[in-house]
Amino acid sequence: MKKFTRVLSMVAAAALMAVTFTACSNSSSSGEKKGSIKFGTNAEFPPFEYVVAKGVIGEFDGIDMAIAKQIGDDNNKEAKIENMEFDSLLVALDNGKIDAAIAGMTVTDERKEKVDFSEPYYNAKQVMIVKEDSDIAKASDMQGKKIVVIQGYTGETCVKKLGYSYQSFKKGTEAILELVNGKCDVVVIDSATADKYVKDNKGLKIVEDNDQFDNEEYAIAVKKGNKDLLDQINKSIKKMKENGKINELAAKYADATTDDSSK
To answer: For residues 179 and 142, is the Cβ–Cβ distance under 8 A?
Structure first.
């Protein structure tokens, strides 16, 4: 009887080991995330990043957020989002609060001195949003007008280079509200976001000036010297560009509706 009991114990132990091994194998092959990438953003820039009740990463949605999630998935890591003011992103990178910044950020020589940029993933340019009855037809027509920009955005840099006085806001929605309410004459902002605001607000139109505003490239910023993360991001971006994923996201979010009720 003791011998039979001992045999049963051995069989049970073997079975337990098999179950444990299988469980471990399933766990390692189930795509369980190993670590995370903390992306900093400024969720005031539809259709690239904005806040909704339920987004692709928590409450955050948009083209950039979907790209961030894909980068995390491609590298078996969880993509996390830290929302902050745009002007704080490069500082947060430098002090290690975030691993990367994805916020419709234009690659500039000034920024390249502070951070390393990924391969560009989107092309854009600055445009002017005005009321439909506005007489502004080109950038030079803004002289003497009440100009509004978003603090830290490329539009602010462009208006500053033109030598025009302006007022800056931290949120694009605040800038557009100034225009809608007749408190300013023009808002200078990136083209994709301008398309979204004009679509969502009746009585507005977009004015372009290709002679004054050059094409820009959006890229993801990482801390200087963080080659490992940069390589991971670049590999994922290259894949998304080759398989058409980024173009699909741009088309998808062009028609997306933002939900500001949770802001």
So the answer is: no
**223's tokens:** 């801390």
Pull the structure tokens for residue 91.
Answer: 């500082």
Mean pLDDT of 220-243: 98
φ, ψ (nearest 5 deg) of residue 106: -75, 135
**Closest to 111 in 3D by CA, of 130, 123, 93:** 93
In this structure, the number of other CB atoms found within 10 A of the CB of residue 87 comes to 12
H-state helical runs in the chain = 2-29, 63-74, 89-94, 109-112, 154-162, 172-180, 191-200, 227-242, 245-254
Residue closest to 153 by CA, chosen among 115, 117, 127: 127
Q: What is the pLDDT of residues 59-86, one digit of tens each?
A: 999 999 999 999 999 999 999 999 999 9
Nearest to 82 by CA among 106, 95, 98: 98
Angle formed at CA 30 by CA 28 and CA 32, multiple of 5 degrees: 70
Residues in the chain: 263
SS3 150: strand
Pick 19 or 44 by higher pLDDT: 44
Torsion of CA 244, 46, 147, 151, to 10 degrees: -100
